[in-house]
Amino acid sequence: MPGSIDFEARTATTVALLGRDYRGVNFELLCAEGDEVKAGAAVMRDARRPELKFTAPAAGRIARIERGARRKLVALRIEVDATVGCAHYQPPAGDDRDGLREFMLESGAWSCLRTRPFGNIPNPGAEPAAIFVTALDAEPMAPEPAPVIDASLDEFNAALSVLTKICSAPLYLCQAPGHAPELAQIDRLRRVAFRGGYEAGLPGVHINALCPIGFGGGEVWHLGYQDAIALGQLVLRGTPWLQRVISIGGNAVKNPRSLLVPAGAAIDQLLADELVDGPTQILAGSSIYGRPISRGQEFLAAGQRQITVLAGFEKGPETERTHAGVLIPSENLERLAPPGIYAVPLMRALQLGDAERARELGVLELVEEDVAPLSHACVSNNDYGRLLRRVLDRLEPGYR
């Protein structure tokens, strides 16, 4: 385990990998129900990019492989049994770009990278215009990154070093004002502080400010600070970091706080004995960016840092918004938009499915999380994350 991260630890008997966390991947299973798997061992790969592998977040037995429409993977569930053991990977001895990329692919670390535009896992041979590490979190009740990073400085430094060696692009470390962890001297590392409201921690905000993309045909990559720590753990020790720091909060949580939990843990197990009586709604994320989920049927998503539980809602599965109405402009909508984005024109373009107009308005720098506040605030009842993805899907084939 990296450093000595001082948070209350919780356990879970079931963990999972979720298909929806890895957009554009055609999963090919490397295991079957009933198989025992070591923590960190490859359990799936991308059929179109077989070098891209996905590893088990815990040791145990493959309990269930759940598929949905058109046989798409919904979840691969593992019953935890630590006695099965942990996979070990041999970190490369040198600084060779191809060797480091191969190590990240083989160990599953490559899958934590995401591109802008589109939010995909980068192609193994691609070259970014920049890489961003998000080391701040301004969302309501989010866990504080500073103590996690400070307790894992060796791993964090190792990850930053690797990220500068797998490409020739600048590496931006986006952090909160006043947090200045002691970092090694790393070429092409640029530290940038961001301040502001809850949007200050969004990768899209950092990209727009430091390396905007739009019509040039390039892409940038980003990852979160905990994924960086996990990469550093692999580089230094050859074994995966099997835990993550998350927060539980909201007015239905008895004791809001940060916890150290298994990666991919079953959410209902993490919330056992934590909630007040009465109907609730569980959100994957904060009250601003969170997505409603069904209690008892969901797991921590890749990169998820929060569980928010709100009182006074009837329990039930997530449903699509229907009967969308008319968009009514307001100053509030403009305040909720990411910096550099004109909210109302973009929302109209998304409603109309006008991909070219949306591109002119900066849609290539956005993914669903960036427009979540607009969905919550707009009286039209539109899900702008869903509308955004439809437009991005239209733009993607002709990009570059």
Descriptive key words:
alpha/beta, OB fold (Dihydrolipoamide Acetyltransferase, E2P), Rossmann fold, 4 domains, five-stranded mixed beta sheet, 11 helices
What does this structure look like?
- By secondary structure, this protein is of the alpha/beta class.
- It is built from 11 helices and 18 strands.
- Strands 1-15-14-18-16-17 form a 6-stranded mixed beta sheet, with no helix packed on it.
- α3 packs across α5 (225-237).
- Residues 315-320 have low confidence and may be disordered.
CATH superfamily membership of the largest domain: NADH-ubiquinone oxidoreductase 51kDa subunit
Question: Uncertain runs with pLDDT below 50, 5 residues or more?
Answer: 315-320
Gyration radius over CA: 20 Å
Q: Between the first and last Cα atoms, what is the distance in angstroms?
A: 41 Å
Instruction: Tell how many strands the DSSP assignment holds.
Output: 18
Main sheet strand line-up:
1-15-14-18-16-17
Structural class: alpha/beta
Mean pLDDT: 91
In the CATH classification, which architecture of the largest domain applies? 3-Layer(aba) Sandwich
Helix content: 10-25%
Q: How many discrete structural domains?
A: 4
Mind describing the biggest β-sheet?
6 strands, mixed
